[in-house]
């Protein structure tokens, strides 16, 4: 991404020209470039089906068999794509770890949460049982839960508490990068805000890198320093969070920011609804700019000419023929009357 170049050593995460094609021919990630440095928070936004989860899974080589991956995923300068499996397994906990959405599905219902958090510590840190238990207590307290909750089973905790457990587990082996895939999607708005503040606090305290994935641009702009907006497997807009959220230069970024107004904003109830239609099938992408069939400001040329990312403002880039100037006025959509959903 186009921000100030880091000069002292490799970036924490540096993704270059990443392509992922599933066995059925779905081109889910197409030429993605992005990076995260220590202490930085990158938000990756996009509707369902834009390739966000595929990107996250690719970073730690968690994709299903048959998926073809090319490009580079440099974690502290070391390419995850060419690592031996033993090294990949170590990196998954100690280099980077993932917090998934829906903690109830990610936690094992029949094991106490303390044992589940201890497992990677015993396995990858070669800790003693006593050492692991001590670390589990510290981690739980760190995420705002009493150490004694280690004895609880997942069903004895609330949704927010379970998500705190997932975060504790992600931190178990002191990773340097956290990948959070829709970490608050299943939670109500109050709890969502608490979990986001917790993630922010941990990132700042431990100088971690954060890559947070969400369909909700407002949540991301509230939490992250920079945003990358994905559409049909590509980054179509990127830049400082406020800049992208408030002055989107790609019509897709603009539609996403209108669909997800700021948390607590009373105007949110009257915000325009999202775009009609769905992202394209990655096995049969449209010609030209893949967004053109849904774009309210497309030119005739957009159906044949693809656009690369180009300067759209300070450290801000957009892959749109209109990127160099404020977007032309768009037809206004019908006002939404429902409360925003997290
Ligand atoms: N295992 C798979 N095999 C084939 N296609 C897949 C597979 N997993 C995902 N896809 C397709 O790849 C595209 C990107 O999916 P992905 O889950 O990465 O998107 P996403 O933006 O994370 O959406 P969501 O938020 O719903 O997870 C979609 O069209 C999806 O149908």
Could you outline the blueprint of secondary structure elements for this entry?
Blueprint: E1 13-21, E2 27-36, E3 41-45, H1 52-59, E4 68-75, E5 78-79, H2 85-94, E6 96-99, H3 103-106, H4 113-124, H5 129-142, H6 159-170, E7 177-181, H7 189-206, E8 209-214, H8 217-223, E9 226-231, E10 234-240, H9 241-246, H10 251-259, E11 310-313, E12 316-318
Parallel strand pairs: 3-8, 3-9, 6-7, 7-8
Antiparallel strand pairs: 1-2, 1-4, 4-5, 9-10, 10-12, 11-12
Helix pairs in contact: 4-5, 4-6, 5-6, 6-7
If you had to describe this structure to a student in words, what would you say it looks like?
This protein is an alpha/beta fold. The chain has a domain at 105-172. The protein is built from ten helices and twelve strands. The protein has helices spanning 52-59, 85-94, 103-106, 113-124, 129-142, 159-170, 189-206, 217-223, 241-246, 251-259, and strands at 13-21, 27-36, 41-45, 68-75, 78-79, 96-99, 177-181, 209-214, 226-231, 234-240, 310-313, 316-318. Strands 6-7-8-3-9-10-12-11 form an eight-stranded mixed beta sheet, with helices on both faces. Strands 2-1-4-5 form a four-stranded antiparallel beta sheet, covered by helices on one side. Helix 4 (113-124) packs parallel to helix 6 and helix 6 runs parallel beside helix 7 (189-206). The radius of gyration is 20 Å and the shape is globular. The two termini are 27 Å apart. Residues 266-272 and 331-342 have low confidence and may be disordered. It binds adenosine-5'-triphosphate (ATP). The site of adenosine-5'-triphosphate has 14 residues, from helix 1.
């Amino acid at each position: 991404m186009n921000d100030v170049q880091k000069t002292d050593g490799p970036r924490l995460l540096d993704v270059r020209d990443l392509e992922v094609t599933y066995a059925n021919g779905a081109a889910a990630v197409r030429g993605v470039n992005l990076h995260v440095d220590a202490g930085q928070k990158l938000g990756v936004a996009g509707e369902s089906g834009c390739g966000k989860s595929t990107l996250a899974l690719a970073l730690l080589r968690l994709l299903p068999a048959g998926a073809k991956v090319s490009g580079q995923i440099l974690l502290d300068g070391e390419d995850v794509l060419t690592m031996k499996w033993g090294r990949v397994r170590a990196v998954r906990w100690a280099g980077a770890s993932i917090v998934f959405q829906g903690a109830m599905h990610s936690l094992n219902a029949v094991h106490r949460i303390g044992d589940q958090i201890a497992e990677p510590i015993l396995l990858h840190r070669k800790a003693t049982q006593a050492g692991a238990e001590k670390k589990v207590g510290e981690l739980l307290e760190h995420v705002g839960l009493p150490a004694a909750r280690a004895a609880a089973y997942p069903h004895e905790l609330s949704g927010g508490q379970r998500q705190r457990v997932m975060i504790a587990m992600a931190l178990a082996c002191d990773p340097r990068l956290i990948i959070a895939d829709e970490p608050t999607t299943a939670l109500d708005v109050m709890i969502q805000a608490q979990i986001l503040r917790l993630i922010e606090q941990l990132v700042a305290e431990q100088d971690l890198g954060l890559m947070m994935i969400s369909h909700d641009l407002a949540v991301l702009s509230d939490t992250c320093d920079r945003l990358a907006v994905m559409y049909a497997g590509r980054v179509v807009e990127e830049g400082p969070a406020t800049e992208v959220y408030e002055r989107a230069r790609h019509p897709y970024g603009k539609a996403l920011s209108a669909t997800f107004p700021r948390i607590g904003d009373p105007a949110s109830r009257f915000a325009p609804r999202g775009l009609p239609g769905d992202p394209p099938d990655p096995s049969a992408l449209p010609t030209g700019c893949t967004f053109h069939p849904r774009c309210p400001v497309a030119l005739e040329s957009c159906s044949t000419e693809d656009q690369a990312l180009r300067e759209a403002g300070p450290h801000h880039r957009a892959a749109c023929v209109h990127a160099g100037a404020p977007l032309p006025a768009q037809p206004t959509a019908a006002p939404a009357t429902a409360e925003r959903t997290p």
